[in-house]
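Posted in: Structural Biology > Protein-Ligand Complexes

Title: Requesting predicted complex, heme C in pocket

I'd be grateful if someone could produce the 3D structure tokens for the following input. Sequence and ligand are given below.
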Amino acid sequence: MKRVISILAGAAMLTGASYAVAELADGYKAVEPTSEDSPLTEVISGYEFRIKSTQETQDDDFENPGMLLLDQAADQWSVAEGSAEKSCADCHGDDPLEAMQGVGSTYPKFTEKGDHRAFRNIENQINHCRTERMGAKAWKYDKPDLLGMTVLVRHADRGEPVNVVVDGDAEALFERGKEMYYTRYGQLDMSCAHCHEDNYGNYIRADHLSQGQTNGFPTYRMKWQGVGSTHRRFKGCMKNIRAEPFKVGEDDFLALELYTSWRGNGLPIETPAVRN
Ligand code: HEC
Ligand code: HEC
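-- Reply #1 --
Done. Output follows.
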């Protein structure tokens, strides 16, 4: 992986950060971009940038702390709730991992028909089923119920390639997400691309910068001591550059989620991934 290192003058001044090149381990996995428009020459999961012990924790389902939420969600699947007194299982079938095959790898996207049609990520789709189909309360963003069910839906596609569609109806959101990705935000005046496109593979302080891919989300993070959503991670990155983050679950981050997912089209889903 040979690349010119760009020095991020603004950030280096404010944070004292310096960038050092580090090689990825031999035999790291990468996939070819699925689109000619991709700015990346190779698409690499965040997994490859983590140290061996972190990778091993992810690889072992018994060690991976994210799997606990999955188990809870699998139980929740058949619990009837709301005014309709229905469970997920009543409409989608008894085996959640079977029912949700082919779903998680395609989100975010436009779902449903007629009045219900909207652009949703998995979290929002689950809550849509709860409020509109079950007559139950929406689950809170980034709390265990919603995180767990989102992990379950994504996990049903573990190993499947990320495959989001960005043309047709989704094009406007895709363009919006793309613009955000290259916009400088915050006191450090940096864009996502500064770190995750121009400097992946380099170190920023103690962090080995990845391409900022989303194929492992919701992800267990040691720093969080728990599982968090894609939008929580976006929020954290925006805070790190001292920018006012957008709201989780809402349009700006949905657009960014679509765009970042597209950058990772072809990468295998790892949910629940483990990161530091
Ligand atoms: C100052 C550098 C910096 C900027 C700017 C930045 N990030 Fe990050 N980001 C990081 C670091 C450091 C990590 C943790 C190590 C890694 O995976 O790169 C990270 C991790 C991530 C991850 C998790 C990757 C994984 O495999 O778990 C995503 C997704 C992400 N960033 C998205 C974004 C988005 C979207 C933006 C723009 C809103 C952004 N980042 C801006 C530094 C940055
Ligand atoms: C009363 C029936 C009903 C219940 C209960 C229900 N759903 Fe749904 N769900 C639907 C319908 C109908 C669709 C739309 C299917 C379509 O678009 O073809 C849907 C779609 C979905 C999708 C998107 C599937 C796709 O292919 O994109 C997910 C994810 C989902 N539901 C999860 C859940 C979860 C999790 C629960 C329980 C918390 C739940 N649903 C409860 C009826 C229900």
